[in-house]
Design brief:
Elements lengths: L1 H34 L23 H15 L2 E9 L2 E8 L2 H12 L6 E4 L2 E2 L8 H48 L4 H26 L3 H21 L1 H16 L7 E4 L2 E8 L3 E6 L4 E5 H6 L2 E3 L5 E11 L4 H14 L10 E7 L3 E11 L5 H18 L17 E5 L7 E5 L27 H10 L20
Parallel strand pairs: 2-3, 2-4
Antiparallel strand pairs: 1-2, 5-6, 5-9, 6-7, 7-8, 10-12, 11-12, 13-14
Helix pairs in contact: 4-5, 9-10
Length: about 475
């Protein structure tokens, strides 16, 4: 009786253990069945580390389970699973070698599987296989279709940015025109505003497309490229910046008579590269703006009054005060010479044969030509000096001996006797000068700025480009 009870008790414990083990064995399998839904066109994943069926799985159960999984994946053609004494035999055809390996790993990780014999054959693709091309074209078409909304949005933003930048450029230019800003500065500032707005729209497009890093890389590369180009085209960059600075400072205007780097002439125009001057000889001279900006600029038109000077020498035996008074009368009577500021006749130096006088006088540079007036004044001063009997000796052609010239006479055997001989001064009749203010050779005293300006209009400009100097600011008069 007691033995029967112990036998029943042992059988009950054994049944209870079987039920508990079965529950633990089935729970991961059920969870795996609920979550895993393999797709036909998805890439193979790593095989599960273990596939549990029952605590003691039978060959038939393993065979059915693996056969169902292989069919569900649709990666294999006519898969067949056969299990004998825990050894799994797999046959059929796999699309790729990865799929064949995956099937072997799946069987190997299954519960109660002793060994796996993977006899699957990998389907060899045909020599002329167009499937990759078709797949690639299909993927490309899908990518293009997915990008259509982004492309439309980008085009819209770029057009809007362009319209806004153009409008901002026009508004900025009109605002700066009312502020009387130089034309070059107006163009640079207004275009900079437009470019910044356009770049902001481009940044928005890259940001929406998720290409912010690429945009920053492009901008950084553009900045580096700008530095490289700036170094390579240093002279062009210097001239352009110099034109901006000259436009801000405005040292001259169209028609001004200037001297730059030894070149004297009238300003015609200034471009972003050079400043064009027409010389008094009627020649066009182009001076790079960088050179103009770094040079000393003599503007003879900015101040209408201009001082002219020249030197004249009188003899030592003549009265210096008489010469000064005579020259002052000539300056006061000359119609082109200004009496205010005061004209000066000063003793400059004592030469070897003359006392040198320096004459300073002023003219109105906008009305008269300084070359013509200087010629007229020198001619009239020479006539007045000669009229009052003042000599103008030249050490190169005349030497004066106030004590006479000693002469030595030798007579026979007698010793030489020195007799001081007083050399008489040979009177000379100076040629008569024309007392008119301006001769026909001098061509009048009027400024030649108008004639040169007319020549400039008829001539071909050697430099193309917009004139950065405003004609209305010119101070040239007839």
């Amino acid at each position: 009786m007691r033995a029967s009870w112990l036998l029943v008790k042992s059988e009950l414990c054994r049944a209870f253990l079987i039920i508990v083990i079965s529950l633990f064995a089935l729970s991961p399998t059920l969870a795996q069945d609920a979550t895993a839904t393999p797709q036909a066109d998805s890439a193979p994943l790593d095989a599960p580390s273990r596939v549990d069926i029952q605590p003691v799985a039978r060959d038939e159960e393993i065979e059915v389970r693996l056969q169902d999984i292989l069919l569900a994946t649709t990666w294999f053609m006519e898969p067949d699973v056969r299990v004998q004494e825990g050894v799994v035999f797999i046959t059929g055809q796999a699309q790729t070698s990865e799929y064949k390996t995956w099937a072997g790993d799946l069987a190997r990780n299954t519960q109660d599987v002793v060994a796996v014999v993977n006899q699957m054959e990998v389907i060899e693709p045909p020599i002329l296989n167009f499937d990759p091309i078709v797949s690639g074209v299909r993927d490309l078409g899908r990518a293009v279709l997915r990008a259509v909304p982004l492309v439309v949005f980008g085009i819209f933003i770029m057009i809007l940015s362009w319209v806004v930048s153009r409008a901002a450029t026009q508004v900025s230019r009109r605002y700066l025109e009312r502020r009387n800003i130089n034309i070059l500065l107006r163009n640079v500032i207004s275009r900079s505003v437009g470019v910044l707005l356009f770049l902001f729209g481009l940044y928005v497009v890259f940001q929406v497309a998720g290409l912010t890093n690429i945009a920053l890389t492009i901008l950084g590369g553009t900045g580096l490229l700008g530095i490289i180009l700036g170094i390579a085209f240093r002279d062009i960059t210097e001239n352009f910046l110099a034109s901006i600075f000259l436009s801000v400072q405005n040292p001259f205007s169209v028609g001004d008579l200037v001297e730059i780097e030894g070149v004297i002439g009238y300003i015609q125009r200034m471009t972003t590269r050079t400043t064009i001057i027409m010389t008094l000889a009627g020649n066009h001279v182009q001076i790079p703006n960088a050179t103009v900006y770094q040079s000393v600029i003599h503007n003879f038109t900015s101040n209408p009054n201009r001082q002219i000077d020249f030197t004249i020498g009188v003899g030592y035996e003549d009265s210096i005060s008489l010469a000064q008074e005579t020259i002052q009368r000539v300056l006061q009577d000359h119609p082109a010479v200004l009496n205010d500021p005061e004209n000066l006749v000063l003793v400059d130096s004592l030469g070897s044969a003359t006392v040198n006088l320096q004459i300073y006088f002023w003219i109105d540079g906008t009305q008269h030509s300084w070359l013509k007036v200087k010629s007229s004044v020198i001619r009239l001063v020479k006539r007045a000096i000669q009229d009052v009997g003042i000599s103008m000796p030249d050490e190169a052609r005349e030497m004066i001996f106030p004590q006479g010239v000693p002469v030595k006479i030798i007579q026979g055997e007698q010793s030489a006797v020195d007799y001081p001989v007083q050399m008489p001064r040979i009177p000379t009749q100076p040629p008569l000068e024309d007392d008119t203010v301006s001769t026909s050779a001098e061509g009048g005293l009027r400024s030649e700025a108008r004639e040169i300006e007319q020549q400039a209009k008829k001539s071909r400009s050697p430099e193309s480009g917009e004139n950065l100097l405003s004609p209305e600011t010119s101070t040239t008069t007839e």
